[in-house]
Amino acid sequence: MEETRHERQQQEVMVFGADESELSLYALQWTLDRFFAPLAPHFPFKLVVVHAKPSPASVIGLAGPVIELGDIAGAIEVLPIIDADLRKIAGLVVRKAKDICNSRSVHDVTFQVMEGDARNVLCDAVEKHHASVLVVGSRGHGAIKRAILGSVSNYCSHHAHCTVLIVKRPKTNG
To answer: Measured between alpha carbons, how far is residue 154 from residues 99, 144, 157, 173 in Å?
Structure first.
């Protein structure tokens, strides 16, 4: 039976938060292998892969505070260089995600790069697409790194207005 355009528009949306980490690639593969590949071509979700590109200013802020006025001029000069690098990383993330989707014969995917903090970007994407599921990977940072950097998965699990699936890599024995 052929799926009509109206049925496709009514399909639930799954937002997947992608970043440059190996765990993110694993989480995408895991998600596709369980929710898409076995059900092809009648996928239960419309997949939207979202990458949050940090702003260049936030990256400079992570490097430490600008103390002297002379440092501000130097920071402004490097913003375009940092932005170019962040755009390159975003392009790489999207290309790898497309390759993984194509390798699992999942072709009807929307890819988006949105600037901002990943926590806010993903929650905003859930709202924008009226997603019923958000999938994120868990990097497994320790308590100190989590306290400093914040946990995207923890934040989303408390603030996204949908079901949040957190994919963790299985522990290896050895």
So the answer is: 28, 14, 5, 26
C-alpha–C-alpha distance, residues 13 and 130, integer Å: 7
pTM: 0.84
Q: CA-CA distance, 138 to 141, in Å (whole number)?
A: 8
Helix spans in 36-167 (H): 56-63, 69-103, 118-129, 143-149, 152-159
Q: Which two tokens stand for residue 126?
A: 């859930």
Is-contact 42 76, C-beta < 8 A? no
pLDDT in tens, the chain (174 residues): 445 554 545 789 999 999 999 999 999 999 999 999 999 889 999 999 999 999 988 877 655 555 454 555 566 778 889 999 999 999 999 999 999 999 999 999 999 999 999 999 999 999 999 999 999 998 755 554 444 445 899 899 999 999 999 999 888 775
Other CB atoms within 10 Å distance of the CB of residue 74? 11
Amino acid 18 reads A
Count of beta carbons in the 10 Å neighbourhood of residue 39: 11
Phi, psi of 114 (to 5 degrees): -125, 135
DSSP string over 126-139:
HHHHT-SEEEEE--
